[in-house]
Structure formats: structure tokens, C-alpha cells
Amino acid sequence: MALLEIRNITKRFGNFTAVDNVSIDVKAGEFFTLLGPSGCGKTTLLRMIAGFDAPDSGQILLDGRDMVGVPPEKRPIHTVFQSYALFPHMTVAENIAFPLKMSGKMRDEIHSRVNEALSDVYLSKFANRFPHELSGGQKQRVAFARGLINHPRLLLLDEPLGALDEKLRGEMQRELIDLQNEIGVTFVFITHAQNEALALSHRIAVMNQGNVEQIDEPSRIYNFPSNRFVADFIGKINMMEAKVLAVTPLHLQLSVTGLGNVTVPGRKDIQVGSQGIMAIRPEQVRVLHCSEENKVAPYFIGRVSDFLYVGDVTTYIVELSNSTRIEALLPNSIPGRANFFEIGDPVIVTWQHDSGQFLSD
Ligand code: ATP
């Protein structure tokens, strides 16, 4: 049984539907992420799980118990916010101890649990500092420790790393994974940063305009997006209008605008005549010198119209004869051979048959 069951939840603000009949199951011990662009309904859904807002319809079950109508402080759930929400006049230790004091725990127990929590988040030496004497990352660790001190069944994290700079954010992501592994509490995490979602989560729900578009493991979301929105939102992808010409159990034959006929892996739900897109990730596209031996199907001839060298990889833009532009990401793994091609070079663009995919509209 799932720890958290969200059943057909809908939330409206006036005429506007912010969360539209959403159902999600989160398993015990999972690091589950709600990912989507700004305004897609992530925070609204999180607030209903926490109990700050009530849904217009649907059920939220925790351990099989209906939470709708249960006030936030009576739910075995804690929320960590991006703004940390620490008490400025309390020390780190007092901030972490606060939930234990509120639940009437004895002094000795508070003392030992706070020390343990401080050590879990590497802040033992900072127990007597005040929040204004801490860095952003340290404040966020205090907020995590305070969130976990009462052993909630579920920790909700609302863009907790959003205020940190890129490098610190990377470090805190690692710490968050370690903390979750160590403590084993179920996390529901929200972010609009797709890399962060891919790096941290066991599973991701991709949201768009109040709906869930796909729930899957990170690698499946990236490699097998269920539709155009997910493909476009997660990472970079080349997309070309396409129509299905033929269907076999293993393959789809497509007519792709700007390319001609292309074969991609089969999909059970697709019929001849379906309209959609042919999608391929830049790192799946190969760019080769224009020579006879490189002309192995599928291949397309074009010219390099631009490139961007960023050290480890170079992104090439290749313009095909009919102005279709394809982006290819090439690793610069051979020292001294950073730029394989120059602007204007004639090249061949190719890929493995099974790396392209058809996504219906
Ligand atoms: P962000 O990443 O920017 O925080 P989000 O995905 O968390 O976005 P929500 O905050 O859940 O999005 O908002 C979803 C939609 O509902 C938005 O269009 C927002 O303007 C609207 N909304 C949220 N709260 C209210 C409210 N109290 N009254 C009216 N509209 C609201």
C-alpha cells in the first residue's frame, strides 16, 4: 500500500482550476518530486497535502487514513520552505528543539534528540549560533533538522534549495540524498528545476496547468517522455512535425517535415495517419564529415551554422538543405580536439534508428 494516496484532487480559485483531478501514490521511503513550470499547481497541491488548504473534491490518504479535515498540526507531516522560516531570536539548537517542546517532551530527551539532529546535518559546532550568523546552506540544514526532529511520516519540501547559489545547491542536493537515505523518511519535494528533479528523485510527477502529464522514474521521464510537453520541459530535444506512414510491431515509419522518411521504435497506442512530432535528444545525434563511407542510413546532409564550446562538450547547430535546424551535443573527450567542425563545414547528421521517437499531439 502507498504511504500517501492522492485521489482525484481538484482545487479551484474562483473560476480558475489550479489542480485538476490529480491522482498520485507515493510509496514509503520514496523521494518523490512534483516538477513543473511556474504556476502549474505544485505549491497548491503541496499545501493541500500539508493541510494548509482544503481541496474542493477528492481524497488525501496517509497510511490509509483520510486527511481531509485534519488540521496541519495534527498530521504526521512537516513542511520545509525555501525561506527557511527559522525563529530569528532562537539559537540553532532552540530552533530545532521547538517542535519537541511544543509536543511536551522532557528536557533530557530534547537535549539528546537535538544533539543527534545537529550531528545528522553537520551542525554540531553551530548549536549556539543565531540564524543571522549562518550561511544560506546552514540555515537550510537547520530547517531540515527541525523538520525531521518529530519523526514525521512525510516531509514536504517546497523548493528548499531555490535560494542557494549553483555550487552550494549541488552540495546540498548530495546532502539531501544522504539525509533521506539515512533517515528513511518519505520526501515530497517540489521544484521547477528539471536537473534537480532528475538528480534527486526516485520518481517524478511532471505537472502542467494543474494536470499530471507523466509519473515515472527519472531515466524513463528523460528517455521515454509520454508527450510533447514532457519531452520539451525535460532537457533539450530536437522536435520535427511528423506523420505516421506505417506501423509494425517493432517500428513506426514516419514522414518527417524537413527530413523525409524516418524509422523509430514502435508504440502500441499509435495508428497510421497519427500526427505528432519526431523527437531526438541532441546527445543522440552524431555529426560526421561529409564522406561516402559516412553515408549510412539514416543520414541527412547539412552545414554547421553555429557551435557553442563549453569545455566538456560542444553544441553544434546543423542546418539541413531545407532550413531544418538540428542540434547535436558532442563530447570533447579527445584533448586538443575541442572543435571538430567549423561554421560552414558540410557535414552528415545521423543517429541510431532506435534513438528517435514519435510523440503524438
Ligand atoms: P511556482 O513554481 O511559481 O511556485 P506553482 O506550480 O507552485 O508555481 P501554484 O502556486 O500552485 O503554482 O499556483 C497555481 C496557480 O494557482 C497559479 O496560476 C496561481 O496564480 C494560482 N493560485 C495559487 N494560489 C492562489 C490563491 N490563493 N488565489 C488565487 N489564485 C491562486
Automatic annotation (TrEMBL):
Q: Enumerate the Gene3D superfamilies for this protein.
A: 2.40.50.100, P-loop containing nucleotide triphosphate hydrolases
Show where the ABC transporter domain sits: 4-234
Task: Name a GO CC annotation attached to this entry.
Answer: ATP-binding cassette (ABC) transporter complex
Q: Which GO terms fall under biological process for this protein?
A: putrescine transport
SMART domains for the chain: AAA
UniProt keyword list: ATP-binding, Cell membrane, Membrane, Nucleotide-binding, Translocase, Transport
List, in alphabetical order, the Gene Ontology terms for molecular function in this entry.
ABC-type polyamine transporter activity; ATP binding; ATP hydrolysis activity
Concerning SUPFAM superfamilies, the annotation shows: MOP-like, P-loop containing nucleoside triphosphate hydrolases
Q: Is Nucleotide-binding a UniProt keyword of this protein?
A: yes
Keyword check for Ribosomal protein: no
- Enzyme Commission code(s) on record: 7.6.2.11
| Functional note | Part of the ABC transporter complex PotABCD involved in spermidine/putrescine import. Responsible for energy coupling to the transport system.
UniProt cross-references to NCBIfam families, sorted A to Z: potA
This one is known as: Spermidine/putrescine import ATP-binding protein PotA
Organism, by scientific name, is Nitrosomonas cryotolerans ATCC 49181
